[in-house]
Amino acid sequence: MELVIKHFSQLTPDELLDIFKLRVSVFVVEQNCPYQEIDEADRQAYHIYLKEDNKIQAYVRLLPPNVTFDTVAIGRVISAKRGCRLGYEIFKSGIQAAQDIFDAKTIKIEAQTYAKGFYEKFGFKQSSEKFLEDGIEHIEMTLNL
């Protein structure tokens, strides 16, 4: 499995299309949640993914401070295959990239509440009350490195 870390400006059209197809298939189609999944934050993001057989198997989006939060943020965590630990591996890679690229001391995420336990394994702690985003219950979580 190959780890790829690229800023938006470095992505090829094919990579960008594959990323957007995966994200929309999970966050819009699978979750039956029509919303503007592709946004301006993508332009400022590092797109991190695991690739095998020329297909994206897992993905996260890493955002610099002051895009969604005053700190570095990670979002759009996806694994194409469930139960294979790819979500764990790509999220771990996102945290490492946050430290390497931005020298992050704090990372924030908006997590769907059902996934709270997953993020707690990495040391994230709930830092907000529950709120609805696009009809899905979320919480903010923070990791202090």
Features:
eight-stranded mixed beta sheet; 145 residues; alpha+beta
Give a concise summary.
With 145 residues, the chain is an alpha+beta fold. Helix content is 30%, strand content 35%.
Q: Could you explain how this protein is built, in words?
A:
The protein has 145 residues and is an alpha+beta fold. It has a single domain (2-144), classed as 3-Layer(aba) Sandwich (Aminopeptidase). Helices cover 30% and strands 35% of the residues. Strands 1, 2, 3, 4, 5, 6, 7 and 8 form an 8-stranded mixed sheet that branches. The longest helix is centred in the N-terminal third of the chain and has 18 residues, at 13-30.
Shape-level CATH architecture: 3-Layer(aba) Sandwich
How would you spell out the order of helices and strands? EHHEEEHEHEEE
Q: Over the alpha carbons, how many angstroms does the gyration radius reach?
A: 14 Å
CATH topology: the name is Aminopeptidase
Domain unit count = 1
What is the β-strand count?
8
SS-based class: alpha+beta
* CATH C-level name: Alpha Beta
Quaternary organization: single chain
**Terminal Cα span:** 27 Å
- Describe the main β-sheet briefly: 8 strands, mixed
Percent helix, as a range, is 25-40%
Proportion in β-strands? 35-45%
Overall pLDDT level: 91
Shape: globular
Low-pLDDT stretches are none
Superfamily at the CATH H level?
A: Gcn5-related N-acetyltransferase (GNAT)
What is the number of helical segments per DSSP (H or I, 4+ residues)?
4
Strand and helix map with partners:
Blueprint: E1 2-7, H1 13-30, H2 41-44, E2 46-52, E3 55-63, E4 72-79, H3 86-102, E5 106-112, H4 116-120, E6 125-126, E7 131-133, E8 136-144
Parallel strand pairs: 4-5
Antiparallel strand pairs: 1-2, 2-3, 3-4, 5-8, 6-8, 7-8
